[in-house]
Protein: C-terminal processing protease CtpA/Prc, contains a PDZ domain
Amino acid sequence: MKNFFLSLLCLGFVVISCNKNDDDPILEEEVIEVPEEEVPIVVDIEVQNFFWQTLNLYYFWQGDVPDLADDRYDTQASYEEFLTANPEPVDFLENKLLFSEDRFTFYSNDYTDLVNNSAGVSKSNGLQFGLSLIGNTDDVFGYVEYIIKDSDASNKDIKRGEVFIGVNGTSLNRTNYIDLLFGDNDTYTLNMAEIVDNTISPIDKEVTLTKQEGLQEDPIYVTEVITSGDKKIGYFMYNQFVSGSEDAMNAVFADFMSQGVTDLVLDLRYNLGGRGTTATILASLIKGTSTSDLLFRTTYNAKLQAEIASSSTDNYFVSTTGTFDGNSNAPLNTLNLSQVYIIATSSSASASELVMVGLEPYINVVHIGSTTVGKNQGSLLFVDDPEGGNVYDETRVNNINPNVQWGLQPIISRVENSAGFSDYADGLIPDIELDEDITNLGVLGDANEPLLARAIQEITGIGAKRSFDVMIPARVISSSKLHDPRNATLLLNNSVSTSKFSLNQKK
Structure:
């Protein structure tokens, strides 16, 4: 796609005159002032073209956005005029092309940011925290959920359950917390606090943290086998569905099997999603490897749906770890359970919800925690590679337009389970409602941590007299993960065959 000029280029001109008293001509340059409204404006529309072409073909709501209609522009000239009239790519995307009910399409001017994000790689200090309001005010406080291993925070005096109320000496509130915690500063100092008698008060403690490039989080955070009565309970805390972690998950379940685990508590309380293929493998490790059983089905916009075979929409349970991202295609060490206990909260979304919904037609899923985010949609990463259908393929990075390094990850599908259920846009409601208590977050993986303790109680029937009263519930307004929509993903592998579709190039 070429550059376009909104007006002709007007230049000054040179006047040559001769003075009869001199032998040499005198060159006098006369510069003509160009009116401001006639100053040429160069509009590069390559990014806009990439956005429109991608969404016109793949976007789930393509039929609901008038400017994405196939017949919206009858000639190449009218199409280019439309793009040129929208010179700012982000404004163009958000105001012209995205459906009003779309909460989860996102983008970056560097597609590698999105690639790294899906692999659990980020620029981070390793502190994962939630943010809540102090009482009925606009004042904000943060509390530590967990700390990424081998991060800057892991080497500092800070741990799960601690709280903070300021950054660099400035108290947090609804207006400033985004700039203070998620702004451009790579280093900041937290002003810590304590909770006494349900009152949050500052203390004389500061913790300085520095973000580091390329921090990779191990999604397998805690695994334990807990013996309670005659039960052997496997506890598995998984924080992101990362492709390439399947062999490691399989090894965890092999250990569960070797120790005679009879029940499983799957902790997804801070897991906002990730790869659909990874979710399929986790579900198979829990329920079993009958490859004729449907886990979930994807539906697309009308244009794609009419052309896609069921082999590209139906996703079944699997029997091996597969070969994605270095996995060994090993047979799965499935527990073959008829019931599973899943801890999920308002920080659980997408692929986490898919595991819960996909398992329900086959086994009893006991959801402990709070209502989840509600993301029943799948996405795919696109780059400006028309010959590859604009679908990101790591083997085709040399084919990406060097002038357009943007990545676009739009919603392209809706998911439903084998019973046809997909109505959870408002979140999945727990069977046993129990908020995290900021005054008593406990130690993750410890049998006394409240949400795990409640699951153990449900499994064994032991400890019925224990109180699970919550003093200060963790009602998040945001978190280190939730503030960035890129974290709430159900990222589909390329289930749409792009070879049979062509981008809508105007003539």
